[in-house]
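Researcher: I'd like a structural prediction for the single chain below. Treat it as a standalone chain; there are no partners to consider.
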Amino acid sequence: MRDFAAERNTLDIQDGITGDVHEIYYRMPTNEERAAYQNGVFERRGQKLKSRVFENRLKFGSRIISGFAKGTLGIEGKPFSADPSDPDYRQDWKDLLIRYAGDIVASVAANVFEATGAAREGEPESPLEE
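Model: Treating it as a single chain, here is the predicted structure.
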């Protein structure tokens, strides 16, 4: 259920590098952010369009991510936290995600900004269910 009053939303991201599942917290984007996201996917250079999909996902994903469950992300062999009340809190947690786990940040953006689609009566929910 999409809870309009929820302060925090949760998305489980399967890490293709470690196999871990990261529980990522995010806020819902505003309609203005959704429009800006769509407008930033391509960049016009004269008569050509340049894809900026990854850069756009990284930019907007980093804006909406608000934290993560401690335990599956770490540095120097130690888990760190995005929660200021945790003793392992790192003020630079978001910078670390962007620098070392851009794939996770981009995946959050792809899921939040791009994953909603229309369901049609009588069609399978996914191609694998045929």
